[in-house]
Structures are given as structure tokens and as C-alpha cells.
Amino acid sequence: MQLKNELDLLFWSSELLFTLAQLRQFPKVYWIWNHRIWVLENHLDSSVNIWKEELVMVSKLLKIDARNFHGWLYRRIIVRKIEQLTGEKKLFEELAYTTENINNNISNFSAWHQRTVLLSKIFGENENESNAKMIHDEFAYITNAMFTDAEDQSVWFYIKWFIKNKVVRETLEPSEYARLLQELHSNVVMINQDDLEFSGKENNWCLKILIVLDDVLKNIGIETCIEKKKCLEQLINADPLRKNRYLCLLNDGQ
Amino acid sequence: MASKERGTLLKEKHVRYIESLDKKQDTLEFWLTEHLRINGVYWGLNALCMLRSKDVFNREDLIKFVLGCYVESTGGFAAFPRHDAHLASTLSGIQLLKMYDAIDSLSKSQIDKCVNFIKSNQMKDGSFQGDRFGEVDTRFVYTAISSLSILERLTPEVVDPAVDFILRCYNFDGGFGLCPGAESHAAQVFTCLGTLAVVNRLQDLTKAQVDEIGWWLCERQVPEGGLNGRPSKLPDVCYSWWVLSSLSLIDRLEWIDFEKLRGFILDCQDEKRGGISDRPDNEVDVFHTVFGIAGLSLMGFEDLVPIDPTYCMTYDITNTIKKYPYN
Lengths: 254, 327
Ligand SMILES: [Zn+2]
Known about the structure:
The structure holds 2 protein chains of 2 kinds. By secondary structure, chain A is mostly helical.
């Protein structure tokens, strides 16, 4: 507390400028981020404004390197602080921020990761009805994403999490859940077909996700036309780096 | 790559490279920098152990150096004499003493103080900070728990909250992050699974989780054969250790292609000076040298001494550690 009185605003502002210069040079050095938090905590201006400015700053740094996980971690801390000071949740704004990042670059796994964290929180706080709406929107969003780039693993990791998510499973009417899964299923089959016609090869990630979808659908009593065994046998040839995993899954299935 | 001699680990050259680091103490190349010195010495000795050349280092000198890094006031080890103690350097110090079967060169009260130093860095949520500056990271949970295990001083009061914390770092994709909510990273997967393995709690993970972890880990292998640390990142030799040790701990080592990875590691050798780099044609360093060799050892190539994926030391050393829970 005494610090605050003895040192003037100028000092804190120049300290922020100094650490910013450091961060631009060494964005992966943990203690600079940590020191910056300390500066903000002790800043003469204890209003929410400096934290809001900080959020703008971290957005800029994440523009330079969108995969810097120190930056993403820092962002979560800043957002939490703003939420505490204003008493308002920023979940939807932050979700929109991940959308913006993913739309810029669909392979931004850090943004997809952040999306799972935020969505889990939103699911936890929402009423059932608004969750159902969000889930519908999300099905549309991931369908769009996989049509945009079916080669990149980020979107597929996200999809396999999303379709098995407990809230997704339990919020929707069973028939509605089944319908959305089957729709997703036929879209994945379609992408795979397109790839086959276009390049003569099936899409490995489509096959991998069809296997997951097959399990999820079976769990709710729906048989698919895609044979899990056939997908696995194909992957053994098409994705030989991970051949032993597929052999293992084949054995598990028997 | 065609000019490279594929398919051989240049053992003799790597031994000479590590030896040369010890002799060039005043050059830039020496063990990276002072603030990582004790870690660097551990990496070097560990590589020599796998290469059956432990004697290249002078045992007495090394023990003297390690004891010189012990900080009497706090009980931890520093990276270099007269620096501050840190959990990361404390693990390296204890590992080095263990590798020379010299834990008892510390007095009983020094060991007690060291145990207290480690425990004093545990936070309420079970995590550990590296030192009093408060960086929290699953890496430090591993360094703390592994250190206490080598000293055979684990207790449920320390272990149980640490395990809870680790399990909270598990992510949607089958990986682990540096704290709850942080993105998965292969090095963090090792520190989390390694911690669970040290305290014999891998069974806290469900079969479904283990399958997801295995899937995420095997997707780290890229067409060049090397492994990356996160999706859409470049391959790097050090992940040969972080990813493979993790796969080994969950008994899915063969979920990646051994021959391809072996080729990638061998392509990263400096054929003239010895040593291994992060990627082909980059500068070599001791960190990537040890983890490249450790990857080869885990895959059973090149007649190396087998390395224990839990402790990152050879089995002949770790076999003597009393396993938790005690009694
Ligand atoms: Zn590396």
C-alpha cells in the first residue's frame, strides 16, 4: 500500500512500457509475464481501465504469435480480473474471440483449446434451453470448419471432444442428438468421398472420426452403414506411422 | 540427407562431444549457461550412462560440484554455486548424487532440510512453485515428487493433493497442460504421467482416458518421422523423450513408427563434432543430445543401456529406489 503512495503514475506506466518491450523480444519468458501482473496489481490506477488496456495489449501479442500459450494463459488471468472488477462475465466475448482466431486460421489449436474451456463454462452456467441453441450452432460451426479444411487435425480433435461431451449428450432430446450426429456422419462421409474422387485417396482424419462417430452412435443404439473394421483396415495402410494403434483398436473390437 | 551416414548412432563422437563440454568451461558452448549448469551436467552424465561411458566424467569432481550447489540456508540445490535454490536444479542435484550412489554424501540434516525445501514449495491446491517467485507449472510437481521419491521421503500428505492437481490438468484432447485450463503440451504430458508413475497412481486414469492420451501422443509424429510437442508445430528431437516416455508409461510405446523416428534422430547428429540438434542441420547441444539418445534407448535401438521412462535415469540406477507406497 505504501508503495502506491510513494511512487507516481509515471513509474508504473514506464514499467509497463518496459516489460512490453521485453515481452516483444522474449515472449516465452515466464517471469516477464509474471512481473507484468505484479505491476498491474500494484498500479496507482486501480480501476478496471488498465486491465482493459492490457486485454488489448495481449490481443496484439497474440496476433504476432497466435500459438503462444503464455499469452493465452495470461489472457485468461486478465479476463478473470476484469470479471472480478466489473462483476460481469465475459464468456461470450471470449468465445467470439476464439471464433475470430479460428476463422483467421483454422489450424490454431490454441484457440480451439480455449473454446473447449469456455464452452464447458458456458454450459455449466446456462439454462438448458439456451444450451440447446448453442449446441445446434456449434454443430453448424464445426461442420463448416471441417468443410473448410479437412486435412488439419485441430478441428477433428475438437469434434471428437464435442460429440462425446456430457452436456451435449444430455441437453438434447435423444432423437435430436441422434439426428445431428447422423447429419455430421453423412457430411464426413461426403468429404471423404470428395477427397477420394479428387485425389484418389481417402481422408485419414475422416476415417478416424468415422470410427469415433460409429462408437457414439452405437452407444445410443444406432447402426451406421460405415464399418469400423473397414476404416481401421484402411488406416493401417493409409496412415502407417500409427499402424499399431489401429491394430490395437481392431483387436479391442473383437 | 543422402550424404549422411544413415542408420548409425555415432556413439564415440557423442561421448567425445560431451567430454569436450566439460573441458571447455570458459567457452560459450559449455553446458549452455550458468543458470542451467547443474541440469546440463545431469543431461551429460545421463547420456554417458546410456552410452556405457559413465567414467568419462570424474566422479569425485562431480560430487564436489553438486555439493557446492547445495544451498545451506534453504536446503535446495542451485544451478550453480552461489545461485538461489530452485526445484528444477534440486532434482538434477539429487539425480546426479543418485547416479553416483552418493546420496549419503549429504548429511541426515541436509537431507531433512532438502525435503523441507521441496515440501515448502507445495501450494494449497497440490501444485508446486519452482521457487519463492511463484511460477507454478506441472513440471515442478514432477521435479518435487521425483526428488522426494529418490530421497525415499514421499508421504500421502504431499502425494494426494499433487495427484489431484495433476488430474485437473488433463485436457479434452487427451493431453495435459502446465496448469488447469492450459493447452496440452507433450512435455507436460510427460511430467504429469511421470508424477503419477512415481507415486504408483497411473491407475487413477480410466481406460478411456489412457486411450485418448495414447491417440494424442501418437498424432505427434509427423511425416518426416520426428515428433512435435503440439499440433501444427515442427518436429524436434527432444520430443523423442517427452512423447516416447509418456507412451511407454501408458504401455503404448509402439503406437508410433520406430524406424521413422530413429531416422529423424540420426539425421540430427553432427557427424564431425558429435552431439545431436533439435532438427537436421541445426547447432547441437547437450539437451537434444541426451533426449535423442534417450529416445533411441526407449525404442531399444543401438544397444544402449535401457532408460527408465519414469525417472529419466538408467534402470540399473532406478531399480534401487524404494517404490511408493512404502512398507
Ligand atoms: Zn527441443
